[in-house]
Specification:
This protein is of the alpha+beta class and about 500 residues long. Strand 9 and strand 10 form a beta hairpin. The protein is globular, with a radius of gyration of 25 Å. It has three domains: about 1-140 and about 160-180, no CATH class; about 195-420, no CATH class; about 440-485, no CATH class. It contains 13 helices and 14 strands. The chain has helices at about 1-15, 25-30, 145-155, 235-255, 265-275, 325-335, 340-350, 355-365, 370-385, 395-415, 440-450, 460-465, 475-485, and strands spanning about 35-40, 50, 60-65, 70-75, 80-85, 95-100, 110-120, 130-140, 165-170, 175-180, 200-205, 225-230, 285-290, 300.
């Protein structure tokens, strides 16, 4: 029976791989040892998309109108068929495939989103709880995503996506090595555990591509988009609820009451993981958040890390991660409420003695594994296909191990200096818009309360509402003085 299945797979692959590009042939792909994932679209159609440029003052080249192309997909391991979606029949069998990502979608080697018409576990873990329709094929030639996901797991964030390296053949064309990975979805059995009345959402620089989003008052360039419920399915009641939730959340970041609304430990852990990884793409950091249900008792949590394209860059080995002083974390690190900074430092003390040794051992073990050998052979084929130079598993592992050894020393030195932590008080309090928070701003607030104006000064009522309660009064003066004394301008 096994031989017959192998023959069927080989016959199907030979048919699918006719006209294989470059110097790579079927025998090389099969001999490399990684699972072989074959996608054959209806009529050989290739997924397309349109270029999408951001609005003024927003981030990111991206794509829109990505076509979902119907296809059949198989996965084989050592010539044995382990998954076959069948031919495409809507809601019954087959898959749809489209190009995913933002700037990465414009690379020659493109990432893909796979949607199964029938739930399955493409990683073949032998348990129905892992079945889902949503999967992705992403690039990870440098093993940086592998490192990021391991940090996510070791730090104990809500969920760590499972994955497997595969060789992809797409419409008869060898497309190289990909990571077949679970996507960020609500799935109480195996992904993000969120109730039906709960939310998975993202602080998203690409919000402008969505029809529905929840507004942010922190930055015009970032808004909140829906993962669950889906943007196209969210109703008015759900929209209004999330708008109120994020409004409370953002007010609490500004006035120091955030401990009432957020799970501080999850925010501290997420940020610490990013600082371990030293990412340089602040706008594309995929900041996923969850709220378990729609009751007042549950708090907002940071979900899992995602998107490691800009992690472990040598030039930032002695700098904070790019989101360390941006978005939520600018307010959390700079707040008069030091709960977050204390939690961040405690998480470092908890993890530093174990995580770096564990990840070093993890990659040392991986280097000696059969999967590593298969990946190394496959990376040679990938470089032939795309002309991206010589890449080896061992050189990647050496780089990663050296990075973390150096990163641990730098982080320990700098995290020990975080309390007290001083940042410019530059989002609230600069009432006269002169770049400083000082006595002139206090006078401006007092004058406003008394119905007077100061000659020659502008007055920003939003900045004067220091406690974010919707009005400007003596409470704002008191909080301003306390904040100004604790975090003087630089």
């Amino acid at each position: 029976m096994r031989k017959r299945v192998q023959l069927v797979v080989l016959t199907f692959l030979c048919f699918a791989i006719t006209g294989l590009s470059g110097e790579v042939n079927l025998q090389e792909v099969m001999r490399a040892g990684l699972p072989v994932l074959v996608v054959t679209t209806v009529n050989g159609e290739e997924p397309t998309y349109d270029r999408a440029d951001p609005p003024t003052d927003c981030f990111g080249l991206s794509i829109m109108n990505a076509t979902k192309v119907p296809a059949r997909m198989t996965i084989s391991v050592d010539g044995e068929l382990v998954y076959d979606s069948g031919y495409y029949v809507e809601d019954l069998s087959g898959i749809t495939v489209k190009v995913r990502g933002n700037t990465t979608a414009f690379h020659a080697k493109k990432p893909y989103k796979l949607k199964l018409q029938k739930k399955a576990d493409l990683l073949c873990r032998g348990d129905d709880k892992f079945k889902d329709k949503e999967w992705a094929l992403i690039k990870d030639e440098r093993l940086i995503t592998k490192a990021g996901l391991k940090i996510n797991e070791l730090a104990g964030l809500q969920w760590t996506p499972a994955y497997e390296y595969v060789n992809l053949v797409f419409n008869g064309d060898y497309r190289g090595v990909y990571m077949l990975i679970e996507t960020v979805e609500r799935n109480v059995k195996c992904r993000l555990n969120v109730a039906e009345t709960g939310y998975v959402f993202e602080y998203d620089p690409y919000w402008w591509k969505e029809e529905t989003y929840a507004p942010s008052t922190l930055y015009h360039s970032m808004q909140y988009t829906y993962k669950y419920p889906e943007s196209k399915k969210v109703n008015e009641e759900q929209q209004n609820y999330l708008k109120e939730v994020v409004s409370q959340f953002e007010r609490s970041l500004k006035n120091g009451t955030y401990t009432n609304y957020v799970d501080v430990n999850s925010f501290a852990t997420w940020m610490l993981c990013h600082d371990m990884l030293g990412c340089i793409d602040g706008a594309g950091s995929n900041m996923f958040l969850t709220k378990y249900d729609n009751t007042a008792e549950t708090k907002i949590k940071m979900a899992n890390l995602w998107d490691f394209d800009s992690a472990l860059y040598q030039e930032v080995s002695k700098k904070w991660d790019s989101v360390h002083d941006k978005w939520f974390f600018e307010f959390l690190f700079g707040s008069i409420n030091k709960s977050f900074v204390c939690a961040y430092k405690k998480r470092w003390e908890d993890l530093k003695s174990t995580v770096f040794d564990q990840i070093d051992t993890y990659f040392a073990d991986f280097a000696n594994s059969e999967e590593s050998k298969a990946l190394d052979k496959s990376l040679i084929l990938d470089s032939k296909r795309w002309g991206n130079g010589s890449i080896s598993t061992m050189s990647n592992i050496d780089y990663i191990q050296q990075w973390f050894a150096s990163r641990k020393v730098w982080l320990d030195d700098n995290i020990n200096q975080l309390i007290p932590y001083e940042v410019p008080f530059n989002k609230l309090g600069d009432v006269n818009d002169d770049g400083d928070c000082d006595e002139r701003d206090i006078k401006a607030i007092v004058s406003h309360i008394m119905g007077e104006t100061l000659d020659g000064d502008s007055f920003d009522e939003y900045a004067a509402d220091v406690n974010c309660d919707g009005g400007v009064n003596v409470d704002d003066v008191v909080l301003f003085i306390n904040q100004f004394c604790n975090t003087p301008s630089k």
